[in-house]
TrEMBL record:
Residue ranges constituting the VOC domain according to the UniProt record: 11-127
Organism: Halocynthiibacter styelae
Entry protein name: VOC family protein
Lineage start: Bacteria, Pseudomonadati, Pseudomonadota, Alphaproteobacteria, Rhodobacterales
Entry-linked InterPro entries: Anthracycline_SecMetBiosynth, Glyas_Bleomycin-R_OHBP_Dase, Glyas_Fos-R_dOase_dom, VOC_core
SUPFAM superfamilies: Glyoxalase/Bleomycin resistance protein/Dihydroxybiphenyl dioxygenase (SSF54593)
């Protein structure tokens, strides 16, 4: 067995979110989560990296691909930049759909589910 200098610290190390139109998706996620996503050519696809607060840890990217229909794919939970309610309002104002019902409360915080304009299932998560 060889000594690998890269040893993942978590079971999930990267997430890729397919979107039907990268430019529109970047505008949506920037508006909702106050990101500053920029597209870049990472071959074979243009992508937009989802930032981490400290520049380390689990992150991901958007790429132009084929999203699952109407929230039927995996759910990607993203941390809200302010309050759950304010982010949910921006999510809908930008063209997403927040699924109705009370937020789900768990020991780490609370969240609601939404469907982005591409049909992806997104969890809006507010930590404690």
């Amino acid at each position: 067995m060889t000594n690998n200098p890269f040893k993942p610290q978590h079971a999930l190390i990267w997430a890729e979110l397919p979107v039907s139109n990268l430019e529109k998706a970047v505008a949506f996620y920037n508006a909702v989560f106050h990101y500053d996503l920029q597209t870049m050519d990472m071959g074979p696809n243009m992508i937009a990296m989802i930032p981490t607060a400290d520049g380390e840890g689990v992150a991901g990217n958007l790429y132009e691909g084929k999203p699952a229909k109407d929230g039927s794919g995996a759910t990607l939970h993203l941390v809200v930049p302010d309050t759950l309610e304010a982010t949910a309002e921006r999510f809908e104002a930008a063209g997403g759909e927040v699924l109705k019902g009370d937020p789900v409360v768990i020991p780490a915080g609370r969240f609601v589910y939404g469907i982005d304009p591409c049909g992806n299932s997104i969890g809006l998560f507010e930590g404690n």
